[in-house]
Each structure stands twice: as structure tokens, then as C-alpha cells.
């Protein structure tokens, strides 16, 4: 067996690199093991290559939300920003509290982290897939690509199952489970949703801002959000649609898109507008009734789902009863959910290691002293906007410091 390290980290993503830097600054000899041939592949791809590092708005987390809040009580957003600044990363704030590096380049964040790893003398091993971890004789024994390492502390920061092309894996769950930790069922989060083909026919590529409601088989709302929806060949995508994915239960569910509430005060205002349009466009084909309110293809789809015959009839043939049907579909355009695009196209994993089995101040296991976990491998997932990367950074800092004070640069 090679030398015994103070801390060995499984996973060279955002959380693992952050923990390595924080620990090394506290004086630890740190070994960072990454199974792929490059560090931080998800970091490089995050925020469409711009790297949405943080969010200054209200915390928006799911899974064990209380644990996430406890983490930020111990490592505030200001501390995360200060840590980034100590690496040379300056942040700029955009809409909805999204914070990016001032370079707006994810590669600059990754370069800064790599520079810090070198400066702190962290020993990095790439293409080092960990196959087994055990504990005995007061230290952890790590089997990795034909070699064995020893460490007094072990951090599992291997990420989740999302985006396997960028290194997503279930290996972290398996390692934690081998030490007796419970793993909650995992599912894709921040992922495009598959729907029935009829309701999206001809709409691929159209973007619309609307309210989005997830409905159960009884017609009760399970979750609601708002924002931009992108219609695809297989369903819907866009930020608010992807955020809905983690709330799918796998039962008989549907999504209702509300196009009206953003524009009209209430149904009465919409009704008056449609009646006015019926008069103005009276000699034009009925499908023109929605022109200027929705893009033509979407207006056509709304009327079609409302059951309006669209065979060249003039707009003044639309009855008051049919206007009521259109109003109904403007508020409740219905998509039958058929699932998600899966982990291949998911940005984040929901579920994972049970957080209640870890101490939020240090991310240390309550089952085995010296064992830690951070980042996506835990049962915490956030909404779009930098929340997931911010949790990865905060939890990595706490795991690396292990209750000590970071010495800085």
C-alpha cells in the first residue's frame, strides 16, 4: 500500500475539488481520485458553458431541504463567494439572482480550481476508478485502478447518476452503502419531460412563457411553477419544465400549461377579448382568432384541443359556448405525461444518500467517524439557477475543513 494520506477524495467534480483545496489549506495532505481523464467535466458544461456558480435569492432545495439549509447556516453564500474570490474567481449577478464568473466562461472557473489544487500541492490522480473502500486499523483502505491507498479521512464526492456522458455514476452511492449508509431511490431532476404526441404536434421549437401545473390522476395539483417552456419533438423542455421533472411520481399524471394568467387579469377579461376578436376577424378563418395572442401554431393547437372545427369556417361562426371552451384551454392546455428523458439528459439527480446520517457542519458520517460525503451524492437537489453548484461548493468547503478554519491563500 502507498502512503497514508490525511484525506482521500473520491470524485474530481466541483465538490471534490473544493474540498481538496479547503483541506489542503488547513494543512492536510490530500489525494484526489477522479475516474475520468479530466477534472470538473460537469463544471465545464454548467450554465451552457457560462457556469452559473451561485444564486443570491431564497434557497430553493428539495429532498432533505432542512439539511441543505443547515449546510448554508454553517457555510453561507458569502463564504462560498469569498472562497471563489480566493481562487481568483470574481462573480457577477444577473436576472433572478443568478451569479456567474465575470468572465462568463466555465473554463475560467475550472482553470482557477486547477491552479489552486497545484498551489496547495493536492495529489491528483486521473483515470483512477475506485472499486472498493474499507476501514480498518484506524484508516481507510482504497482500491483504485490496481493500486491501494490509505487515508485517515475519506470523502465521497462522486456526484450523482445524471449526465453519464459527463461522468455521472452510481459509484458513490455504492461506496456509501458499503459502509452502512442508506440510499434513497434516485431519479432524474432538471430533465426534459416526455408527453403524448397529439398535444405537441407541430409545436417543436416554440417557446412560450406560462404557468405550469403538475396534476395527479384525481385532478389535484402536485406542484406548480412558471417560466419558459420549450416544446420539443417528444414533449417539453425549458427551465420550468425541467424543474417539474423531479416532482413526477411515475403515476398517471398530466401537465397543464396556463397561457392566460400572465396576460389577462381574469377569465372575464379574456372572454371580452375573444369576443372582440371574433368581431374584428369575423370574415377571416377561425384559426386566426388567436393571432397576436399566441404564435399561430400554438393558437391553432389551443383551439384544436378545445374542439373547435378548423376547416376554413370564418371567425364569426365561433359560438359563445366554443369561446368558453377556448378559455378553458387557455388556462388548462393539457399534456399527458409519459415520463422523462432519463439520466442521459438530466442535469441533476434527485434522491441519494440519506442526509440525516451526516453532520451538516462537517459533512461527516454519523455511522463511521472519518467518512464524509458532499455534493450531488446526497439527497439534496436544487432548482435551476446555480443552486446545485452552490450546494456542491458549500458542502465541499465544510467537508474539507472538517470543523477547522480555512487558512486561505
Briefly summarize what is shown:
By secondary structure, this protein is α+β, with helices and mostly antiparallel strands. It has eleven helices and 22 strands. The strands form six sheets. Strands 1, 2, 7, 8, 9, 10 and 21 form a seven-stranded mixed β-sheet that branches.
Description:
With 409 residues, the chain is of the alpha+beta class. The chain is 28% helix and 27% strand. The strands form 6 sheets. Strands 1, 2, 7, 8, 9, 10 and 21 form a 7-stranded mixed β-sheet that branches. It has a 6-stranded antiparallel barrel with strand order 12-15-14-13-16-17. A 3-stranded antiparallel β-sheet has the order 3-6-5. Strand 5 and strand 6 form a beta hairpin. Helix 1 (14-25) runs parallel beside helix 5 and helix 4 crosses helix 11 (387-401). The longest helix has 15 residues, at 387-401. The chain starts with a strand and ends in an 8-residue tail after the last helix. The relative contact order is 0.20. The mean pLDDT is 94.
